[in-house]
Structure formats: C-alpha cells, structure tokens
Write a structure and sequence with these properties.
single chain, mainly alpha, Serine Threonine Protein Phosphatase 5, Tetratricopeptide repeat, 2 domains, 22 helices, 3% strand, globular, hydrolase, TPR_CcmH_CycH, metalloprotease, Mito/Outer_Membr_Metalloprot, metal ion binding
C-alpha cells in the first residue's frame, strides 16, 4: 500500500500542530511528552466496550477505534471520524465499565454530530487533522522497545494549535451530552453514568487554568451542564441486558493498564490475596515481571491460560513476557498460538515476527519476514513493525526494501530529512515503477518539499 504523498508532506506540519495539551507525542517523560499505549488486549477490550455504542450511533464499529494515550492527565478527544482517544489517566480514574462507555459515547457523539468538522478550521488545518486521524488511527509510532502493554509511540507535537482544535463550545458539549446519553440508553447502558464522569471534575472551573485537569479545559464543565445531564438521563429508559462481558473487559483492561504504568508495590498493595479474578491474575503477573520475578509471573499466567486456553491476548502476554526475558523459543510458541487464534490482529503478528527475528536462524528469519509483511499490510504506519521489517528484509538480502522500510519509519517519526536519504538509496535498488519504488518516490518528494520551505 503506497504511503500517500500528501500524508508525508504534511507530517512535519502535523508534528508542529499536535499534542501536548490533550494529545500525544514521543515518550520521554523528562520532556513531558506523551505517546500511544498500544496493546492488543487492551484495544480489544475497548472495542468490546465501544461496539454497542457505535452501533447505537449508526457508525461502523469495525472502522472506529478507541486508542489509549500515555498520559496520566485526564482527557478524551477526537480529531477525525475514525478514532476516539482516551488518556490512561482518565481510564484509571473511572469506576466502572458504564463510566468508560459514557466517555466513549460522548466522544462518539462529537463524531456523529460532526463537531470536529465545523469548527472554523481553514483547509490546511482540516487536512492536517485528517492526516492525524489516519496516521495515529492506524498506529503510527516510534519504536519504544518496551511493549509491556504493547507500547508504541505516536507522532509528536506541540500544543497550541491542537488546544484550539479541541476547545469545544458549551453548545457542542451539551449536544454531545444529550446524543451520547441517547446512545447509551439505546445500547442498554445507564445514561446516568455520564453524571458519574462529570462529577469527577466538579469544581474544576473555580481553579486556575494551569491547575485544571485537561478534561475540564477541553470539555467545559458547569453546574448547569450537570443539571442538564441529570434531566436528560432521567427521561431515558434503557432496556435491561446482560453487560457482564463489558464489565469483564473493563476490569481486565484497567488492571493491565494500571499494573503496567504503576509500581509493583502499588499494584500488590491494592490486590486482596483472596482475589483470584482474571484481572487480578493479570495485574499480579505484570507486577511480578516488573519485580524481576519471572517464576511468579509464569504461575499467574499458567492459571489464566488453564482457564482460557483459547484467549489470544493471554498467549500474547505470555509471548511478550518470555521475549522480555530473552526466552526466545517459549516466546515464539506463545506468539504463534496467539497469531493462530487472532490471525487478523497486527499487533500480535508484529510481536510474533519480532520473536522469530530474535531466534536468528535462516528459517525463523524467513518466517519473520512473511509474518511482518502480513502485519504491515494491516497496519502500515506502525514504526515498531517497520523497524523489524527492515531487519527482516536486510537478512533476506533485500537491501532496497530494507532501506525503504527504514525510510518509512523515519518519515512517520518526523525525521523527514533522514527519510529522504534512505528513500533515495531504496529507489536506486528497487525496480523502477514497482509499488515499493513508488513509495520511495513519495518520501523523496516529501523530503524535498520540506527542504524548500
């Protein structure tokens, strides 16, 4: 799939227009940057929570996704019609599945109501916003080297332009509240859950701007708004239905996210010894790993896999853990099973390819190349994957394709000048007119355009 030239030409502008207030960037907390936390299990859980809401809103559930921003501040936002972003901090603050679904429903309402498209943006900024949605929405990111919760780093940027973009009016917020609660009710979810979310932020408007949570700045709060939410929720009568699966995935994804981001001591102190739920076992496995207790982590995972032998995301977690400890063969076996159970999940395929590369035999290198090419076809803007794909091509003696994969990774992470150099090298080694050669040409033109500005 060729990388669109317009996408590459705009990467630098996107990096300058994006993240810092309510958005994402690279990951160096020393620089207070944020990124995306990519994990197949967490994203699957968010998908299970979002599907009934998206269906109620009349949006295609298989085209709109929810991604987690690596930021402990609390916020949620949309920048296009395909992706809802929620910060890790907000997810960790929410009490139950219905509250997280209320956040998703509110942001879905911004999509359904077309708010992001009606904000007086000029054509260039609108194009940049769409590019952000495309790039981040399909997992653009720099290599983090630590995918404990499947971490991949997103495109970086500054905050001022994005804050303007995300500054919803009170009218938009009121409309999104009402639409979102209707979506909740249609989906059989208590619309009063939105009240619980907003009550977390009561009193924020009395604080100085620098001390308010990001959610309160991008989603203006007021007592009148809260009263309006209560009135609307009171008039709705959601049908009763079994929501146990959604509750399960909420507790599971929150446990994994919390245990990944927080210290092992924090995690263990808050787990009751009698708690043997799946969420608790996942949290203990993560905490044990972070405490350098591989045996303990394996015990927890063994119990989980005995309960759920066909859970792809638990096999993936086992694969990641073994690979972190450089136990390559067990990692390959776990990833292979995960990929068998979830063959269309690119994050799992990417991990499988990485484990195969770590084995380093001619057969495993060849298999890694095959797996990584399949994953790239489903997620062409994942820089972690592109890094490994470049290595796999190089091992296969495909130097042109190796240079191209590195050029694409550099372009995605904002190193457009370096990308141009690698793309030029790739173009010289690739058949003229081939799809790969065309992708190299796109990067070269984008780098040349940047130099002339």
């Amino acid at each position: 799939m060729p990388v669109p030239a317009s996408f590459l030409r705009s990467l630098h502008a996107v990096r300058s227009a994006l993240l810092a207030g309510p958005l994402l960037v690279a990951t160096t907390l020393g620089g207070h940057a944020q990124g995306l936390l990519r994990d197949a299990g967490i994203e699957h859980g968010l998908d299970r929570l979002a599907r009934p809401i998206l269906t109620a809103a009349g949006l295609p559930a298989n085209r709109t996704r929810v991604l987690v921003v690596n930021d402990l501040k609390m916020n949620a936002f949309v920048v296009d019609s395909r992706t809802v972003f929620i910060t890790a901090g907000l997810i960790l603050r929410l009490e139950n599945a219905a509250e997280l679904q209320a956040v998703i429903a509110h942001e879905t309402a911004h999509i359904a109501n077309g708010h992001f498209a009606r904000r007086g943006l000029n054509a260039q900024f609108a194009r940049n916003a769409a590019l952000v949605g495309m790039a981040v929405g399909v997992a653009a990111g720099a290599a983090s080297g630590n995918p404990g919760a499947g971490v991949g780093v997103a495109l970086g940027a500054q905050s001022s332009a994005l804050r303007n973009f995300l500054s919803h009016t009170r009218e938009e917020e009121a409309a999104a509240d009402k639409s979102g609660m209707h979506f909740l009710a249609i989906a059989g979810i208590d619309p009063f859950a939105l009240r619980g979310v907003l009550q977390n932020f009561e009193g924020q408007e009395d604080l100085l701007p620098g001390r308010r949570d990001a959610y309160a700045q991008s989603h203006p709060l007021s007592r009148e708004r809260l009263r309006s939410v209560e009135l609307t929720a009171s008039a709705l009568n959601p049908p009763e239905r079994d929501r146990s699966e959604e509750v399960y995935w909420f507790t599971r994804l929150k446990a994994k996210l919390s245990s990944y981001l927080r210290s092992p001591a924090y995690t263990m102190q808050r787990l009751k010894p009698s708690d043997t739920s799946d969420a608790a076992l996942i949290a203990r496995a993560m905490a044990s790993h972070k405490s350098s207790d591989l045996a303990g982590a394996r015990v927890e995972l063994a119990t989980l896999l005995e309960r759920h032998p066909d859970d792809a995301y638990l096999h993936e977690l086992k694969g990641w853990l073994e690979l972190e400890w450089r136990n390559v063969q067990p990692a390959i076996e776990a990833y292979a099973r995960a990929a068998e159970l979830a063959p269309r999940e690119p994050l799992i395929q990417a991990g499988y390819g990485r484990a195969l590369l770590a084995q380093g035999t001619p057969a495993s290198d060849a298999r890694a190349l095959e797996v990584l090419k399949t994953a790239r076809a489903r997620d062409p803007y994942d820089a972690n994957l592109l890094r490994d794909l470049s290595i796999a091509h190089a091992k296969a003696g495909e130097t042109g394709l190796a240079s191209l994969a590195t050029a694409e990774r550099y372009a995605l992470t904002g190193r457009l000048n370096d990308a141009g150099v690698l793309a030029t090298r790739a173009a010289g080694a690739l058949p003229v007119g081939s799809p790969a050669w065309a992708r190299a040409q796109d990067i070269m033109r984008a780098a040349d355009t940047k130099k002339r500005r």
